[in-house]
């Protein structure tokens, strides 16, 4: 059976999604709350399958965890091929932006860190990349997330250690980026656990908002 290609709306058209890259520890306050240091010289990345993508609406609580966390992020959509790109070329290749949530099985991540194992089971699972419709509009400055009306995360995009262009340019030294690739740019402080029945509202200024219900 051939699965349909995941996609997101982009200004009324369709943006087929090829891969999802995620940068880790791109906000110093989030790294600190997780007990981690940040590397200001070289970013690091993990990935999610395009089939982890889901849009606003119901998000099932995943199996295998009792500690599901939200991480609100700015998401970038790549529209042209990039290899060893300059920051200027990387910035020009970004054709859309959205607010997204990197869902994380925090208990599995902690176990993987403790045993020096990969994070795949903690980060890449069904419905773990919740992303609003893309927009070609500029983003910022604010990024925030509420759960049941209470503010959990409230930050600014200028708090990112690596900028949009720096993230995409560095990523293009590791991979041949292609149209359809998404890049999740990290999360500010305030990540916390979710329960079934929780209503999440996520926003990046200037972009379509995201609403999700954990079921």
Automatic annotation (TrEMBL):
Give this protein's Gene Ontology molecular function annotations.
acetylpyruvate hydrolase activity; metal ion binding
> InterPro entries recorded for this chain?
Fumarylacetoacetase-like_C, Fumarylacetoacetase_C_sf
Identify the SUPFAM superfamilies for this entry: FAH
Domain of life, per lineage: Bacteria
**What keywords are annotated for this sequence in UniProt?**
Hydrolase, Metal-binding
Tell me which residues make up the Fumarylacetoacetase-like C-terminal domain: 20-212
Residues annotated as coiled-coil are none
Q: Which Pfam families match?
A: FAA_hydrolase
Under which name does UniProt file this protein? Fumarylacetoacetate hydrolase
| Organism annotation | Paracoccus zhejiangensis
Lineage, opening ranks: Bacteria, Pseudomonadati, Pseudomonadota, Alphaproteobacteria, Rhodobacterales
């Amino acid at each position: 059976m051939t699965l349909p290609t995941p996609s997101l709306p982009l200004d009324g058209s369709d943006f087929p999604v090829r891969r999802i890259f995620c940068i880790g520890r791109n906000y110093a306050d989030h790294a600190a709350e997780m007990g981690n240091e940040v590397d200001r010289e070289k970013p690091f990345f993990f990935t999610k399958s395009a089939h982890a993508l889901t849009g606003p609406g119901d998000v099932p609580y995943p199996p295998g965890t009792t500690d599901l966390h939200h991480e609100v992020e700015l998401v970038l959509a790549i529209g042209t091929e990039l290899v060893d790109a300059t920051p200027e070329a990387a910035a020009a290749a970004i054709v859309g932006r959205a607010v997204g949530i990197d869902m994380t099985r925090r208990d599995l991540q902690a176990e993987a860190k403790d045993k020096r194992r990969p994070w795949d089971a903690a980060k890449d699972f069904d419905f773990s990349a919740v992303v609003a419709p893309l927009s070609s509009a500029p983003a910022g400055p604010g990024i925030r997330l509420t759960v049941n009306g209470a503010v959990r995360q409230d930050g600014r995009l200028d708090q990112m250690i690596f900028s949009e262009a720096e993230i995409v340019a560095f990523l293009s030294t590791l991979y041949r980026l292609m149209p359809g690739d998404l890049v999740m740019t990290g999360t500010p402080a305030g990540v916390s656990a979710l329960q079934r029945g929780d209503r999440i509202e996520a926003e990046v200024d200037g972009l379509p908002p995201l609403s999700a219900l954990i079921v």
